Amino acid sequence: MRTIAIVNQKGGCGKTTTAVNLAGALTQDGGRVLVVDMDPQAHATLALGLDPESLDENLYEVLAEPCEGPGSGRLASIVQAISEDLHLAPSGIVLSALEQKLTAERAERRTERLEAALASVHRDYDFAIIDCPPNVGVLTFNALRAAREVVVPLETSDFAIHGVQKLLETIALLSDRIGHELSVRILPTLYDGRTRFARETLAEIRELFGDLCFDTVIRSNIKVREAARRGRPIGFYARSANGARDYGALALELSLAGAPEDRAQPEGEVTSTAGDREVVVRYRDPGATDVRIAGDFNGWVPDKDVQSLVQAEGPERVWTKILNLPPGTYHYRYVVDGEWREDPDNPNAVPGPVGGRNSVLVVR
Q: Which residues pair with 38 in a beta bridge?
């Protein structure tokens, strides 16, 4: 089970929106997902159609128990089924009392509760998505200890950029203290491409954070708010809305990249370049501003190990991608302004493992 914490100490940046809608998109790609609501405000619980006050038990009853006691195996008893493949571990205002209850515990013991609870259900789900509160306290510590991946939603504004730099420093310190490495990615959210300010801020985010930044961008979309009001992920409510497309692209990017341990190259392995061929592919689009390429030749990390050139041909902009590949068959897609697309100039395509179609490149 891949465990992903959605973290930002700033409110209003799209944490809960991302947790709920990413989870919905992952289930639509065939995954089985558990949403873990670690915020006492219980916004993820509300966004998935449940009233926290109507529930007899929530995460508090699970996390308040000792790790080695019955609490570590109680998580399944409080889980609520939202759909066949989307489940929720709900929250409630009582969760805010957890830190006070655990003051007598050693620091390590206080932050191991969620990890122990999730271990009891790790065979039941493909993903656990943890929605964290807007602060770095014992609840967020629990989430970071349980997770191996962190997604930081970042609204496209100057103040948010400053805040997230401090957050990354905090996560790095916590990672050292917790004792395991966390893979951190930045997700631009609340993006309005109609404004020059948003476009310039997005460019600054990409320049500042580089490969830490997702290629997917989450656009502002009123349908996302409507879906939350109705207690459903956007993909369940309006599949053709921009919000559904954006979170579908995020789910695809996460799935294609794989877990951090899957992406790591074995120690001592050297990639041979003997017999490589230079392969040139081009993408034309007069309306695009950013085009990248990802495939099984570069671990599905957009533009990794790719030489990229951009030029104008009349009204069109042309992106040229130069790859050095040994003979073989490869699957790939373009990422156009954060949206994953197959190659329109390549008729050879096959269904992708997590939805959509992959273009096929044969190098002889």
A: none
Using DSSP, how many helices (H) and how many strands (E) does the chain show? 14, 15
Q: Exposed e or buried b for every residue in 339-357, given b needs 16+ CB within 10 A?
A: bbbbbeeeeeeeebebebe
**Distance from C-alpha of 264 to C-alpha of 237, rounded to nearest angstrom:** 37
Indicate the length of the chain as a whole number: 364
Whole-angstrom Cα distance, residue 72 to residue 116?
5
Q: Summarize pLDDT for 246-303 with one digit per residue, the tens.
A: 898 899 888 877 777 665 444 333 344 456 888 999 998 888 888 999 888 888 888 8
CA 293 from chain center: how many Å? 19
Q: CATH fold of 277-363, please?
A: Immunoglobulin-like (2.60.40)
Where in the chain are the domains?
Answer: 2-260, 277-363
Q: Mind listing the pLDDT tens digit for each residue in 186-233? A: 999 988 888 888 888 888 888 888 878 888 889 888 999 999 999 999
DSSP per-residue codes, 260-272: HHHHSPPTT----
CATH of domain 2-260: 3.40.50.300
Residue 322 half-sphere exposure, CB side, CA atoms within 13 Å? 5
Q: Judge contact between 21 and 248, C-beta under 8 A.
A: no
